[in-house]
Write a structure and sequence with these properties.
The protein is of the alpha+beta class. The protein has six helices and four strands; from the N terminus they run ββαβααβααα. β1 and β2 form a beta hairpin. The longest helix has 16 residues. It is globular and about 50 Å long.
Length: 145
């Protein structure tokens, strides 16, 4: 089971949204550009993507594919810096929920995982907490007007 997640902060109102994908096989570098495009479509706004240094994020092919997207800015975190990535707090939260449980099948694990992530999506305070746990403030950015 492989999961990818993203926390999106709307700078206008400070709202935090959680998106995720879960699949049986690992996400490959060839699927990443389409995933980024889907996130952009869902948000309907420009995207600043803050990425860890997973190999599917740093592959030259991915960089070339994403280079021409005027609505996208990519910022890479330093190598081996999970302490700078708020999504790691999301995964720790999920792991705590799944810990010390026995699942009868991969399907049951997937069902419980998806159910819990859906419940997290409906908890704005928890989502803001994931961002704040890294010293970031998801509050709206004041306008210059």
């Amino acid at each position: 089971m492989d999961a990818s997640g993203w926390l999106c902060v709307n700078p206008a109102d400070g709202r935090v949204r959680l998106g995720y994908t879960a699949q049986r096989d690992s996400l490959t570098q060839y699927e990443v550009p389409d995933l980024v495009s889907r996130v952009h479509s869902q948000l309907g706004a420009p995207v600043v993507l803050v990425w860890d240094n997973h190999s599917s994020h740093t592959a030259r092919w991915v960089s070339r594919e994403l280079a021409g997207r005027s609505w996208l800015r990519v910022v890479h975190l330093p190598q081996y810096a999970p302490e700078l990535n708020p999504v790691e707090t999301l995964w720790a939260h999920l792991k705590d929920h799944l810990a010390n449980r026995a699942f009868r099948s991969l399907e049951e694990l997937e069902r419980v995982m998806r159910s819990h992530l859906r419940s997290v999506q409906r908890r704005p305070g928890l989502l803001r907490g994931f961002i704040r746990s890294f010293g970031l403030d998801p509050c709206p950015i004041p306008s210059n007007t």
